Amino acid sequence: MDNSDFKGKNILIVGLGLMGCSFADAFRDLYPQKIYGFDINKEITNYAQQKGLIDEGLTKINSAILGECDFVMICLYLDDAVQFICKNMDGFKKGCIITDIVGVKRKIVSSVQEVLRDDIDYIPGHPMAGKERQGFGYADKKIFKGKNYILTPTKFNKSDNVDYLEKIIKAIGFENVVYTDPEKHDEKIAFTSQLCHVIASSMVDINVDDDISNYEGGSFQDMTRIAMINSKMWSELFIANKDKLVNVLDNFLTSIESFKMLIEKEDPKLIDKLDIIKKSRESL
Amino acid sequence: MDNSDFKGKNILIVGLGLMGCSFADAFRDLYPQKIYGFDINKEITNYAQQKGLIDEGLTKINSAILGECDFVMICLYLDDAVQFICKNMDGFKKGCIITDIVGVKRKIVSSVQEVLRDDIDYIPGHPMAGKERQGFGYADKKIFKGKNYILTPTKFNKSDNVDYLEKIIKAIGFENVVYTDPEKHDEKIAFTSQLCHVIASSMVDINVDDDISNYEGGSFQDMTRIAMINSKMWSELFIANKDKLVNVLDNFLTSIESFKMLIEKEDPKLIDKLDIIKKSRESL
């Protein structure tokens, strides 16, 4: 596997939501032999097939088909993804690559590692792309353009396979492939992504007005757009990363408290603090 | 005064920063007789004159010129704006309109009201437009396009003058003129604008990384852009509105705390809460 395409390869996409269908849309450009799409919802597999995103839809996993797939992309929520991989471990094709898109990595990596066969390569990943809207109807390969994709390979991965996955990721539009380990991934993500989602949700939570749009210059709308999140998926991710996220939330609460104090006391140090922050943000 | 232009009128813009120069740029299209620009910094008045934003720059207020101006736009920070209006009260032209752009309204309205002459019309305003970058070099009339402009007229204002100001505001690109009183303005702004700025600043405050951009999908950059604020101006505005802002910060802290609790306890109510918030944000 050393070209950045899927020529002669069978692909299986597991879970045909926004992300699964967007990957199907993007993978089509890489000349796969066949794209199979699995989803428990028959309406969704029919839709994906009609739209030409997949060649064949499955609502149950068939071991003959699973045994043919060279590349398996798991686009399920955390617990479902773990369950799917573990339950089907015996069925995967010898030498296949399995990857996933779950937004926190420690739990899935350790759970899969426990049952992983030696002759298949599971490379954990996290594409930093998406949409506020959920569901296959919003699928679009353009959401990957210019984005980051984090990989947390393990010592068991073949470096050829990791290189191949990086080429595929870049071929479908991602700009930057970042390598780290699950521990560091989950720590960073607690700050850059999960904190943002909790803040946006809290801002909407405390809003008592419906005419807010008359009184704003855009900041409020911009900052709360990501409050329209997939509640079930994000709750699962927040809880799976709760040690890191609670730590970040504590730091954030302390900082807001300290601003509140400076404002209450009309402390001139407020200007210095904002000045330092301004310079720090400018340098990012 | 019933046309939406400045034909035959002398305009004075006080303070030639980002906003003052952007207004000068926009006012030029309304056929003013003459635009005077006041700034204590000679370099800035020279720049504005060279760029054709103003016809004549002043670094000191000359009572002959002040007595000629039909429309005075005060683009100074809060305390400077109050001081300028109060100090020059005797010099303004009989019948002139004065307006300001200060981001909190209770303090300036009550301070000016105390010394206001009966024969001039002070109409307080707040354009909800700006840029993260400050200074005349970033001035651009396009920043007003499609934005909100809040006016908090008093019982002393002539309705013809208020109507005229609304026409001027719309003529330079603002889409929506919203009327309210200083009390309600300051309450709304504490939430829609000041809270956003404190949050963005806190997020940057607790960041310990310089490779943050590798680990994000855009939310962090988007939410912290407004942390690059004008420290002196915003400190003054936060403090002038501290009762309202501290109240909003308390509500926000309580909401973040409650999210933290739900996450720590792995409480399934987290999903319901996020679901309600999602629907509430979608309806905005």
UniProtKB/TrEMBL annotation, chains A, B:
One of its GO terms (biological process) is tyrosine biosynthetic process. InterPro entries: 6-PGluconate_DH-like_C_sf, NAD(P)-bd_dom_sf, PDH_C, PDH_N, Preph/Arog_dehydrog, Prephen_DH. It holds the Pfam family PDH_N. One of its GO terms (molecular function) is NAD+ binding. Residues 9-284 form the Prephenate/arogenate dehydrogenase domain. Keywords: Oxidoreductase. The keyword Oxidoreductase applies. Pathway: Amino-acid biosynthesis. The keyword Oxidoreductase applies. Belongs to the prephenate/arogenate dehydrogenase family. This is Prephenate dehydrogenase/arogenate dehydrogenase family protein. It comes from Alkalibaculum sporogenes.
